[in-house]
Records
---
Amino acid sequence: MTFLRSQLKNNRFLMIVILAYVAVGIFAPNKFLPSLGNTWYYVKEMLMIMPVILLLTSLISAWVPKETIENAFGKNSGLKGSLFAFLLGSFSAGPIYAAFPVCKMLLSKGASIANIVIILSTWAVIKIPMLITESKFLGPEFMLVRWILTTLAIFLMGYITSRFVKSADLPADDEAAAALDGPLAVNTDYCLGCGLCAKIAPSHFKMVDKKAAVISQTLSPGDGLAIKDAVAKCPAQIIRFYC
Amino acid sequence: MDVFTLIFWVITLVWLGFSLKKDKDKTLKAIKMSGGMMKGIAGDILGILLLIGLLLTFVPPETIKATIGQANEVVSTVLFALLGSITLIPAFVAFPLVASLVDAGASIVPVVAFLTTLTMVGVVTFPLEKREFGLKFTLIRNSLSFAFALVIALAMGVIL
């Protein structure tokens, strides 16, 4: 019963749509099958593309050397830094807010405002897995033209923003204040719900309502390794471990 | 399957082969992670696809064409850009939705504006962004993104 309830809660949108279908089945039965038929066409298209997106996202997260790219940022990294910013955004997964903690970390490493705008925007609109889906549904030509125009716009936006916003305008890091109740903290606002931390260090993390939660702050000898692994593997980099 | 999708399949499978050979454990872990994320949005994707089916059945293509095809393009583009700014759905799910509109005869200009603001402008995530980067940065980035979304959309209309 609790399982059912959590499923209902997690898929509220799907449930509403299913209820709409039930209503259609009762009040306009002749529209029921055509609606399912229309859906089926898009389901087929989606199934053709989903496994590729899934695999590609995994391969990117496993093999693209994010640390190397991230270390290439710096105040005076110039055009090279911008290019890396563009690449980092292109080879990423997850919605734009997943990029916030990553960008925050890069800012503390000395990344420029322009490059942060470039990462955020690239991450949002033209990352590789998204381009594949776009080309599938709207055609390669559409995707390519939009990619070129958006890329130009992104570099312009980075430049314009850096003219108006200076590093002093950004809020200071408040990380130290956040770590009060123990060595472990998870910034759940940005959790993508992948469940990796709970798999790697099940004695310290658990998935609650699709979000990671810290269940134990006590460290036994040997726990450190698993926790560090979880910190490193977290795609949104939201686990803080002070020891 | 079209050529483009096929190319992506081939590239991905070849890369997967190499990856498995080089580090099986790492590869499988990564796939599990993306799988977890994908499971999280699977319900939403199915919901949107079912909704598209309903929309296409109840709103005939002629009506879609008449409303977003022949209506004032500038007005509909700004409206779609606004709509994109306040919605927060994965782009993933947005593409089939948008494609169904285009297939039904909607003009691509408002559609592109929607796609761009959907992902780049975040009204819902504004408080989060403000907390991380400050009001000035967030305001300027989102306004610029909105403006450029319109420019990109109009340019697409001219080119395609």
Note: Chain B is about 85% helix and 0% strand.
---
Amino acid sequence: MSRPALGRPAVVRSATGRSSLSPAELLRQAILLLFGLLALFPLYFSVVNSFKNPVQYASNLLNVPAALHPENYAVAWTQIAGPMVNSLLITLASVLFTLMFAALSAYAFALMDFPGRHLLFALVFALLLIPDFLTLIPLYLQIKALTLPSNYLAIILPTVAAGQAFSILVLRTAFEGIPRGILEAARIDGAGHLQTLLRVVLPISIPALVSVAIIRLVPVWNDYLLPSLVLDEAHRTLPMALVAFQGGGSATTSTPNYGALMASYVLSALPLLVLFSFLMRSYIQGLTGGAVKD
Amino acid sequence: MRANASPSDRPDPNRSDPAVQAVELQPYVRPRINFVQRLWRARLAYLFLLPSLLLTGWFSYVPAYTALTRAFTDWDGLNPPNFTGLENFQRAVTDPVMQEAGGHSAVWVALGLLLAVVPPLLVAELIYHLRGQKRQYFYRTLFVVPIVIPSLVLLLVWSNFYRSDGLINQVLGALHLSSLQHGWLSNPGTALYSLIFLGFPYIDAFYLLLLYAGLQGIPKEVTEAARLDGASGLRRVFSIDLPLLAPQLRLIALLAIIGNVQYFISPLVLTAGGPGNSTTVPALLMYQTATKFGEYGYAMAIAVLLFLVVVALTALSQWLSRGGAAQS
């Protein structure tokens, strides 16, 4: 990387006319573009192959087929429509309740004074030290023994619990940053704690709430282990359905319907694709901003 | 203005206004109030905390307690467990399959650490040195987009690449390198490495953004001073960026180690630990011991051992990185 500006200390890099394409800059961009496209290659692979019939698939794995076979998507949809709905429902409910309960706790920790505050906060913080694999099996047996009104709750409740520590920590920091004057004004107007939370604290904290929601949403959407243990056939999620549809990895000798398989992969990426086309900016800011640092 | 509200209606007395409070309290108690009253006054705070505490108590603390205590029993999920002392642990450390699995896990953790640190660091440096905010933002976004691919889909697509008639062998064939063709996941010699190196180019969005934010946080005076001293390119990376990124690198190393010690989804879904035991890792053994064979007590002992390994590796990496930082 050549850096010719040795004798010009005061010049701020990007603000000058030199922001044109030097060879080094071109090289950097070429490498980045290559890596970026490679990272997206599985998506490209799924999309082009989802439109192929078995003969086209066998002859070339990389081209865009001349004759498209969208009927693969109809086959895929019959396999994953139900699980897609289940996954959407479970993910939305889990994230919503995670936020709701975490906001209440974060408010108490940030803005209320009560005996045992430090002890209880330490208990919440210590949750981060309990790894998932330690609790997986006991949790599975515990949930199996529980009679729940709906099988959905068998995954929603532990997922909400698993999200509490992280969400409470981030929201508490956000709530503590709210100017005291605003909170005092609300109190003078006669607002109780619940009203202050609903009318003042939450509206101000929408960026933090959105960050926490999308950061939590991705692992919940991808979760496979616990759902595969506690959910029954009718309530199974998308990852479970995809594994079942594939029919057990590459070890199997039978040749699955690749076109439909790839179509199911594309369909299962769509919800997050739509979401991130709206919320990419706040996701990036949530991760790079103060939310998750340290 | 509810000056006439009785103090017991206020669970959280406004401490910034002690005068008002004292006047209001006087009819009931003398300046000091006892502990029970303080608890009662704070009841709204406890009510706010109740859902979180109940859920985490029942779905995190109770199962963790179960795991830690039942590791010392012959728990089978049906009969009341009997205390067996360290028997499960003894069995775990002497079991040859477990030792083999531990070796696989060590390789996975070591290589996984490299894959977690090097590619994101390289990309973060490249993006950071691009000219112009817009360009930097574009590439940052480009590397976050793959997050929309569900992690299971990534595994399944890659298992497709690894098939004997899959993409990798086709590419090797086209390059006249047929001698390198394998059934990547069905060959015991390559299966483990195929799983570890699954997911090229290994650029985790979170790690990348963390490192990029760290680079942005390096004070301009430091980089300018380095430039005056003639440190550029790789020298700058090694003498300035890496030491100043130590907190971020430490966090990534920690997350990668903990994540890889407990990871077993790809062996579970793609190879079931095989062929033979060639892709078996301790976490997978723990899972299979419990769900296939119902030996919950033994499974919990494996889980507790893994937990101890995680704690030890965490302490070790903290200690090493602190030592490294002190040297430079």
Note: Residues 1-18, 248-252 of chain A have pLDDT under 50 and may be disordered.
---
Amino acid sequence: MDSTPTIPVQRPSRWDEPLDASMTDADVAWLRTRGPFNQMDQSAFPRATPLSGILRYDCRLHRVEPGEVIVREGDYGNSAFLLITGNVRVLVDSLTDQQLGRQPTRSIGWGEALSRFLRRSRHPETRTPEQVSINAAAGGHQAIRQVDDRPAIFLQDIEGVLRRHESVSLGPGELFGEVAAMYRSPRTATVIAETEAALVEIRWQGLRILRRDRRFADTLEQHYRRHWLPIHLREIPLLRYLPEENMQRVIEATELRSYGRMEWNADYKKTRKLHPADQIAAEPLVVDQGQLPTELIVVRSGFGRMCVRHGAAHRTVAYLGKGHLFGIDEIAYNAMRPESMRPIHYQHSLRAVGFLDALSIPIEVFAAEVLPHIRKSELPESARSLQKSFTEKRSDRRRVRSDQRSEAADRFSPDPTQDIEHAAGVSFESTSLLEFIVQHRLNNGREAMVIDLHRCTRCDDCVKACADVHDGNPRFVRQGIVHDRLQFVQACMHCSDPVCMIGCPTGAITRDQTTGVVSIHDPICVGCGVCAAACPYENIAMAEVVDRKGRPYVDEKSGNAIRKAAKCDQCSGLPSGPACAAACPHDALVRIDLSESPPLSDWLEKRS
Amino acid sequence: MNRSQGPRLRTRRLVALSVTLVVIAIFWGITRWETSRLGMPAFFTGFTLLAGLFLLMLLGVRRRLPFWPLGSVSTWTQIHLYVGIFTTAIYVLHVPALIAGGVLEGCLSIIFLMVTASGFYGIYASRTLPKKLTAVEGQHRFDRIDWVRNQIAAAADKACRQISETSAKQVLETFYQQALSPFFVSRPTLAYVIAPNGNRRRRLLGDLKELDRYLEEDGRRVAGQLAALVRRRDDLDYQFALQLRLRCWVVFHSLLSLVLLAVSLIHMVIVLRLVG
């Protein structure tokens, strides 16, 4: 008999961490009397995750006051909101940054840049009263107020805003924010409370299980398919020549699938230390190498790892990000091959790194509707050689469609003369660098700071320049993980998947829609530290702020120090651009997009 | 890795060097022409030198103005480098001997040559030392080196206290007190900072290895930990020595450049007064 001693522990369960620990049985019972929960089929839910459990652990009740901003356009979020009582307004027009309490990025002239440099503070993290709180600048109007136990931001002149901007009213039973929550995309509209209202916030995990109710799922599915899928498909460059009728057939056949955990940042510290083989084994499998291709996978959001069996393990050959395709080589080849040739199987596996949302286009739809409208130069090499015979077979159909094609091309392509590059993923010739980048999720970085240690003389001119343009406060430290001769510095990477932006109670951390720079708006930052805790790379610091005489700001009620989140803002607005890169005397430092391979490959080639 | 870009860098360097040499040749030609018509080429080369010095000083100005879009400092460094080569050549055309006669002129020559030599050493150092720094385990920030040094010393002290075997305690504690503690607690010597080498490391690791035969399992484990800490500390000192050298070089080169500019101006004023 086996007498090995055992250690009894409580098995971790699905709802160990509820969204709101203060939800009571009474709250759940009340919610179940409200639509759509009162119409849900309870038998559709698994025994381990009943409807009451979802309401109890994956939901939170909110009371909002008139004028309160519930979600802001451009924000990222993990939750959808269901209106229980009252009314909210969805603003069709975009609000200005000032209306949302944010400071718009302002271009600073040479004179002002010099004046700021000369008037640098002697104390770290100096702020003016207006920068510390928007309430100080709002002329008596409390732009940030406590509603129950949370800070909330309010629009000024709500009636004027509603009069000037087009908006849509939502009433009890209506859901909003579900697309951003489910598919990790920025919110597309700002929603404000028109009257006092009660809302249920449902986190995405709960929302996914709620889809087991057929009626609820159908409503969500129809909404997504009607409003969002066409937009998402049209964002795919390879489909830019697709005529409208073909596009409609693609829309009908496409399915959206999700893999992995959206809160990948919570596990990041643990998983990055795993052996690559263990990490790959732990990643959810999307497509297995050796399967016969049945669908083209288009990455909608998140990250994928393309790997190939190598000996007893898997070797990473590329990583995929938004807009990248998986399986196009095999599918194009199989669709164009003569009947005498055997079809090929998927040559690689695809796994979700963290989370992966993918659009899946069935092979027959892709071959019939999309393939004839792809440029030869954009086809994979293997399929290009077969294209001639394939083109002849389809020449009649193409002639008929030529007029429609030109119309579609005008509509969808900003520059139709340009071929699409790297549509099938990102790879480096150095496998170890690739493994390193994926292991540490550096492929999330759009403006990662990379230092070539073979050139860097450790002079810290980059840090000094950063401090000089930020009132004496450097926004990064020259340290970070090292691979070979490259150091990936702990500076904000302005990520593709900005997890730091999820959960900010006042929308103080935002992404500039034109530049992609993620920055913090001091006046509405309440210093809660949610962003700093969420950033897996630890690139956001919380700093206690002082005035120009060095006197600390404190909360007038609690006496606690006022803290603000501080991070790299890419020197937005400065005439010089990022000062760190410009200050390096040996061209050792670069801000680079790691979500694509060419920038880093080119940079490395230049110094090889 | 594709090396197609490699030649492009080499081409850039070749073009820049060629242009510099051509400009030097033109200036040499002008000087010869001036000499042949009994002119005073020293005026021409002298003012060119002074202009070159001002141009060289602009790198320092650019470094202090990070907020203006004046081009990257690396571009300015490249310009600085080739202007430096040009200025050295003009100096050779300007002076009658490598070190001119007279107190002021002699000093000026020596300062110029020191600045030039430090500049050329800078090119060598900035291209070789970073690779040496990267080859060593751990990338330490200069301002944190003291803190890391204290951490290593504390870890060594803790490791020594962990020994439970009486025999090992006696052997290792004695060795720790005599050899390791002074090594961990003190900063590296000036000799080491000037010319870092592996002698200390080899000696201490060899001595620790020697102790193995007096130790049992627990003692050997602690000796292994101490050996790892010796390596870490030596790597840290190596980083410190090389980083300090790079920093000292910048300070030396820039301070001496300021002195050079000041003495050059004095020299110019004196020459102009003498010429009338």
Note: The interface with chain A takes residues 1-6, 8-9, 59, 63, 65-74, 76-77, 125-126, 129-131, 133-134, 139, 141-142, 243, 246-247, 250 of chain B (CB under 8 Å).
---
Amino acid sequence: MVIWIILLVMTAAAVMAVLWPLSRHYAVAGQVDPNTQFYREQIAEIERDRARGALLPSEAEAAKAEAGRRLLRANGLQDAAVAAVGEPALRRRRAASALALSVVPVLAIAIYGAYGSPHLLSTPSVPVSQETAKLDFGTAVAQIEAHLAQNPQDGRGWEVLAPVYMRMGRVEDAVKAYESALRYLGPEANRLSNYGEAMVLAKDGLVSVEAQAAFERAVALDRTAVKARFYLARAAEQDGQIEKAKAEYTELLSASPADAPWVAVVREQLSRLGAPQPGSAESGGPQIGSEDIARMVSGLATRLETQGGSAEEWARLMRSYAVLGQRDKAAATAKQARQALAKDEAGLKTIETMARELKLIDSAP
Amino acid sequence: MTRKKRRLTLIGVAGGVLALALGLVLYAMNDTIVFFNSPADIQAKNVQPGTRFRLGGLVKQGSVQRTESQQVSFEVMDGQSSILVRYKGLLPDLFREGQGIVAEGVLENPDVFRADTVLAKHDENYMPREVADALRRQGHWQGEGKASQQAQ
Amino acid sequence: MLVEAGHFALALALGLSLIQFVVPLWGARANDPVLMRVAPATALAVLACVGFAFVALTAAYVTSDFSVLNVVENSHSTKPLIYKISGVWGNHEGSMLLWVLILALFGAVVAVSKNTVPARLQANTLAVQAAITFAFLLFILTASNPFTRVMPAPGEGQDLNPLLQDPGLAIHPPLLYVGYVGFSISFAFACAALIDGRIDAVWARIVRPWTLTAWAFLTLGIAMGSYWAYYELGWGGWWFWDPVENASLMPWLAGTALVHSTVVMEKRDALKVWTILLAILTFSLSLLGTFLVRSGVLTSVHSFAVDPARGSFILGILIVFIGGSFALFAWRAPLLRQGGLFAPVSREGALVLNNLFLATACATVFIGTLYPLALEVLTGEKISVGAPFFNFTFLPLIIPLLLLLPFGQTLAWKRGNFLGTAQRLYAASGLAILVTLAVLAFTAGGPVAAPLGVGLGVFLILGSLNEIASRSWSKGSPWAVVWRKAAGLPRSTWGTALAHAGVGVTVIGIAATAWGVESLGTMKVGDRLKAGSYEIRLERLLPRVEANYREDVAILMVSRNGQELGNLETMKRLYLTRGMPTTEAGIMTVGLGQVYASLGEIQPDGSIGMRLYYKPLVLLIWLGALVMAAGGAISLTDRRLRIGTPVRAKTLSAASVAAE
């Protein structure tokens, strides 16, 4: 609310900047005209120069004569100017005021409305007090990185670094780091689960074949690996095997103690799956992702349908639907993409790769 | 001196200077301008050895060889053909195998290009424009699609 | 919240600049002083709005507010504070905002100088200025908005291009922009004069400080950019005739001509139409420079983002303003009153010649820069016009100009005596020839061009000093009198002399590059590499880690003729966030020359590639530019109002009367 008042005050101030000179009455008559003033000063300057001996008297005379002529000319021009009071002037002033009162706020609000983010106004801006902490953090990361650059076989180091990367949002790096950790420290259920999770995040939530393999290995090593089992259930869900997913979630829930931190999440998944068949358009989507994601996906879909787009964009739309659990839509998108990109050899390849990855192959025409 | 005479002098001098400049420009245009070719262009246009031009393309994977005293050789390729480039000097920071580069130099014989300058991109998003165009024509480069994906 | 308020302020500025464009123009036409007075008030309000927007964006950078897309794309929380601030203009959107901020700042200064600028001229000028501001604000808001938000905000930014993380680049754009945008004021004044159909010495007097300021800043900006390219790109070159460099050189050449022609106009009331045309041309070239650099037509470190929509928007602005101003010129210029007369051999004549050479040189650069683009658009053929072209066309036009410079500077106003002038330069030219011969003998066997260039530079410096000396020294007068006379000379005279001497200094620096030596080698620890009389030994190679990059450092011991001078470090850096490598050259200044070492690739066996240069007197190139800018600054402080008198001409009063 405060911010709206601030914006209002700003607008008022801006309009006032225009109205202020318009409201004041004409009082410039006394002001010296800079034109004639210039030549007067010039003549005075010549006098001073002569007094100092910088100019010979004859030179000074010539210069003064020239400046004097220019002064006369400037005076002559001056007569035509000034004096504008009375009815027409008043009308002009009113028109200018009306212009300022309308143009400034209307233009500003129109432009700001179109390009600004007023919905973000009410949320407080991001707190950034941990500035120095972040700096040290960055240095620490860089130090570990430098150390690992020289001793790449230090699996422990990679294992420490990987979750840090995850937190920094450097997911791809995290995948690589887990990979190295696995290589040097050997497979272990927890490590494999984390590796898989990093891969899932790198693909925007899609459980890829590789990730699934990692989770399966983790479960093979340790039946109770919660994270791995959770993602395997999700993989089943994304493959369209809803019943299997439900069964796995339920099993996971029954095997965990009632106060385990993941119980709530699993319950949520279950209740979602319990809702009407997630294949239909309206039911599945909005509940899963936040509304924003759903809106973005539908925006992308509309754009691609109406204006077309690159193969990468089509592929991303397919993946988004798959992640949202709308497999029939993903399949339909694949079909549309194949038509739209019929002449684009490389584009088709991208689509097919994505379809294979999403296991949409059987839904192909 | 009258206004007219003054004007004539001015026009005369200006004409002289402009004529000089025009002559220099025309002469320099014949002599100093360097064309851009991709490896395929060298055969297609039948570029003669001894010609100076800019060569653009991708550095072929695994073709970079370094010898004594900073002598480097590598192959530059486009979709259709490739050519051996020899260069003595430090390569730019962003010179990597598989990256687009532009080399300026002289065609030594139909198979060897001797470069005296090698330019790589200025940052990781930048593909030398000539190279990008040449490759796009041949349908090889999809860098832009990738970039746009990253951007979103 | 601050970010959104800043965004809104920018939108307000758009509306205000529209008012600032329409109302004063109307007022000037209707002769209504009240409407005209709207101009200065709105100009100040626009500055307040744009300034606030800029502060808001800077605050977002400093606090690493990653909900702003622009900050995400160009900043990083571990970046040093100075690069967080310079990151504001280290990208397309922010740099355009800086552009408009400087534009608004200059408009505000015109607005507050109400006692020196006639109200009509001020109103028209600010209106034209507002049109430019409006166009660029519209461009910023619709096509390159720095205030676009991302929600949810990412945890970390993508960092600034490492090449731009450099103190030189932190100040290069502001300097250059003050130069570019400063010419917009000259442009606005020129258009105002055309609209009003009136131009005289008062106009020139008002415009001169603007042109000089812009010129001095542009000089500094170009020099800064050149020095940056020299030490950051690691090739040891300082000018590449790169289109982006040419884009800044063209307005500089036109601006230099403009500085000189305004002098003629102020003192002699002549060259009016030409001066107006030059003012329009100079700013048009500035706009063209902005277009070339920002549109992605040219790819370089400057073209931050290649977006065709932006390119066509700037092209549109370019066409409207250049086309509009030339149309205005064609329509109104014939109505302007002709100026005073002068003989071909006179200071005015010399300045006309100066303008002629500068404008022609500018035209050759223009052709060389735009011909490849035009050819590609028309035929699809790709060519590159490089240094050989420019050396061949530009130098033959600039060298005669420089040779004639001391003569022109010595000539009297209105009518000069060439023989007399030549006589006054006997000492300077004699000394210059002597120096040339001495250097030639000393460096026998070396390049011939270098001693000739040094001779030219010496001639320029001595010619400038000669001007001061001859105006303050006369035979037999005691030193105290000479000193007092010299100190009493107008500061513009000192400024002129200094700026011209600066040109001489730069010329010497450029000429001396011919003596530079270079060598290339592969080194292991303990190996030596020699260039000229300088030698380096590789002492150590070690890795190092900093906040946002890690680097491999080569520590070198520099020695000259066996005598050790100290250590030098050259690095290969890897900026972590972008995974981008850069080379940092190691530079040791010895006198006015520099030893320059650049690290190549590090091989698996621990050997490194190394390029070593010794560049004698190379610092003079940029010192000269500093001296030129200082000359401009001193000239700026001269507030005197003078008229050009035919000093020392014997028969003057009659001639001057006849001339009018």
Note: Chain B has two domains: 1-33, 35-147.
